[in-house]
């Protein structure tokens, strides 16, 4: 059930500390002028999810958003045996009929794969499985085995015809690098039909915002420190859109003193060793999600690659703790 919060006075600052699988964010929401807060949280797709809405239609907005969220999670979760992605993967080598939503997100995954020259690739699943990131039986693969499995990774081999999807035998789709952003965009679009002042959506650490706390306010988001997980490196200020972070602290294991994370370069089969985290700020959540993954796995190439995207903001934290950020964002270091 939704939680209806108490009234918020002009001088109250709500500090929302999000300790989630993704990254740590503090969001400062100011001056809601006694707008009532409506709130719901839970676990979907094995990740923490929360919806916060302020305004007259907040209760209805939260309810409808949650219903849409559950629907999309049910069809896009590759581990859910009733999902359409599971259906595609378990029938590789055959054409599979799926919904318009699934076609839409797969088409977007292919689009961002092309846009990033394959650094983002939704067919990376066999490599993640080989490293043990699915069953948590972590291991560094043998080079020969890795080279063999890399032949199963190629987004160009996904075929779509009308409502049908085909992947070659042995290939699997994993939308973990784009599904959260896709769902956020769908929910943010849905919010436009309600009389609300503002909304904060959090899916596994990726944040989407709607409206503004006040006309002269921005949303302040503090980006998690990749090594001091109860601290932050600085704040980014946005009016709209989404912030997504990919980091080597989310899912990883250490062997012989080397940290290996689940963000694998589809071209090499290995994680990169230069960057600890990449945050991407975009008006489109799906873009922030996919590109934070792509920029992370490509390493320091991301410092120049981001310029292909005019409205994109990027924050990179390197292994030596140096911070680089694109000049087109309002970012304040701690």
TrEMBL record:
SUPFAM superfamilies associated with the record: ApbE-like
Reactions catalysed: L-threonyl-[protein] + FAD = FMN-L-threonyl-[protein] + AMP + H(+)
UniProt cross-references to Pfam families, sorted A to Z: ApbE (PF02424)
Enzyme Commission no: 2.7.1.180
Residues passing through the membrane, by range: 12-29
Keywords: FAD, Flavoprotein, Lipoprotein, Magnesium, Membrane, Metal-binding, Transferase, Transmembrane, Transmembrane helix
Cofactor section: Mg(2+); Mn(2+)
Residues in the signal sequence: none
Any one GO molecular function term: metal ion binding
UniProt KW GTP-binding keyword: no
Positions annotated to bind Mg(2+): 177, 289, 293
Protein name per UniProt: FAD:protein FMN transferase
């Amino acid at each position: 059930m939704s939680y209806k919060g108490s009234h918020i006075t002009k001088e109250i600052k709500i500090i929302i500390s999000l300790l989630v699988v993704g990254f740590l964010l503090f969001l400062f929401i100011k001056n809601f002028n006694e707008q009532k807060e409506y709130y719901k949280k839970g676990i979907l797709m094995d990740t923490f999810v929360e919806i916060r809405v302020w305004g007259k239609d907040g209760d209805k907005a939260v309810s409808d958003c949650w219903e849409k969220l559950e629907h999309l999670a049910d069809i896009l979760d590759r581990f859910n045996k009733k999902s359409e992605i599971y259906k595609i993967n378990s029938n590789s080598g055959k054409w599979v009929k799926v919904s318009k939503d699934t076609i839409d997100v797969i088409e977007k995954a292919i689009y961002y794969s092309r846009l990033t020259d394959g650094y983002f690739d939704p067919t990376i699943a066999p490599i993640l499985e080989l490293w043990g990131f699915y069953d948590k039986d972590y291991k560094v693969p043998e080079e020969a085995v890795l080279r063999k499995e890399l032949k199963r990774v190629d987004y160009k081999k996904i075929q779509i015809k009308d409502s049908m999807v085909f992947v070659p035998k042995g290939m699997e789709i994993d939308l973990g690098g784009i599904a959260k952003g896709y769902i956020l965009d769908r929910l943010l679009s849905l919010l436009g039909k309600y009389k609300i002042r503002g909304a904060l959506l959090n899916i596994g650490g990726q944040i989407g915002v709607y409206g503004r706390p006040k006309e002269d306010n921005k949303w302040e988001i503090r980006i998690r420190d990749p090594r001091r997980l109860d601290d932050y490196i600085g704040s980014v200020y946005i009016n709209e859109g989404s912030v997504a972070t990919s980091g080597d602290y989310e899912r990883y294991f250490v062997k012989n003193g080397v940290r290996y994370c689940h963000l694998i370069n589809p071209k090499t089969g290995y994680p990169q060793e230069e960057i600890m985290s990449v945050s991407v700020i975009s008006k489109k959540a799906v873009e922030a999600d996919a590109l934070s993954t792509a920029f992370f796995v490509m390493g320091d190439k991301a410092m120049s690659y981001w310029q292909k995207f005019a409205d994109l903001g990027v924050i990179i934290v390197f292994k030596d703790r140096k911070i680089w950020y694109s000049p087109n964002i309002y970012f304040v270091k701690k």
